Amino acid sequence: MTIPFLDLKAHHAPLREEFLGAIGEVIDSGAFASGPFVAQFERDFAAFSGAPYAVGVGNGTDALWLSLLALGVGPGDEVITSPSTFLATAEAISFCGATPVFVDVDERTCTLDPARIEPAITRQTRAIIPVHLYGQMADMDPILEIARRHGLMVIEDACQAHGAAYKGRRAGSLGITGCFSFYPGKNLGAFGEAGAVTTASDDLRKKIMALRDHGQARKYHHDMIGWNGRMDGIQGAVLGIKLKRLERNNELRRAHAAAYGQALEGIEGLIAPVEAAYGQHVYHIYAVRLPDPQARDQVLEEMAARGVQCGIHYPIPVHLQEAYRFLGYGPGSFPVAERWASQCLSLPMFPELTADQIAAVVRELKACVQAVVHRAPTVAVA
Ligand SMILES: *Cc1c(COP(=O)(O)O)cnc(C)c1O
User: Fold this and answer.
1) Where would a tag sit more exposed on the chain, N or C end, judged by fewer CB atoms within 10 A?
2) 240 lines ligand 1 (CB under 6 A)
3) 187 C-alpha to center of ligand 1: Å?
4) Residues 20 and 65 placed together within one structural domain of the fold
5) Residue among 57, 86, 131, 283 to mutate when testing ligand 1 (max atoms within 8 A of CB)
6) 61 lines ligand 1 (CB under 6 A)
7) Where in the sequence is the domain holding 176, given as residue range(s)?
8) How far apart are CA 311 and CA 350, in angstroms?
9) Which of 196, 214, 241 is the last residue of a domain?
């Protein structure tokens, strides 16, 4: 049995006719760039996220970057964020001319550790970007409290956390903005690139709408220098259809995670992911940990050889990426993030995963861990 890491074909097949109908409507209307299909999705996604407004943009990286620009973050400013993320979080900060300042993550959740934020705050600090990694929200209350005390803005990187909750409030409704990606593999994925910013501020909504459209509030009247960061009409139409199934699909992911958790209990040398008591994890990624980094790499390879596609999210923390070498961090700067990077292994996770597939993943994983972790270290692995 071959088990994919994610199965978009199975995800889309039952809705094919509905997608084709909606795309047909966009073709007939000619509303390809922004327009009514995007506006409808913006209303629906805002309602889903519990934020008053949502603004559709080109992708999740745009959502982060345009948020920072709209909030006036620029050269000379520092923005605190997590090194355990996809590069885009830091790139958005850099593309404003500001400097990312990393803070280590929590050992259990791999999200920004509130206890380590305050020592990193300087007179240049303007904002904090917690990353809701893997579909689990960062511990927002203490982060918001620190931000309030120091007059900082909190921007949520919710690119992996559509529908995740913190004490009953959904991702994107706690920060001054929430940034979402609808990259095809995300829990809510477009047929290409798309993203959104959620916010409670009408002023920010207007600014981001202007920024995504060359700074024009009225056609060919440019009040500011903006960019082309619009969402496609087709993506708006497709996302509207998929949004109606998101809650159910997140429930399926949670059920799969529970099944994995139960089945993986008692595998020696393997740590299953934990759901923090404060919230609801939506398992964009189901990441286990294997304490021995070499064993992790070998298990990844052996799983692939046995037909089970796994992944690593992410193998190199941002502070150790070549692109950010100039910041002067090095190995040991953020030990928890570095440990996660060397130990984590993402198992197949998608709503259509079957009980048989879960059983097969667990069976193969047990066999691989047995073979690798308990193998004498001198024995070479093919
Ligand atoms: C996917 C992702 C992004 C970037 O989103 P794109 O739509 O690919 O630009 C940013 N941050 C995190 C945590 C992500 O997972």
Assistant:
1) C
2) no
3) 12
4) yes
5) 86
6) yes
7) 8-241
8) 13
9) 241
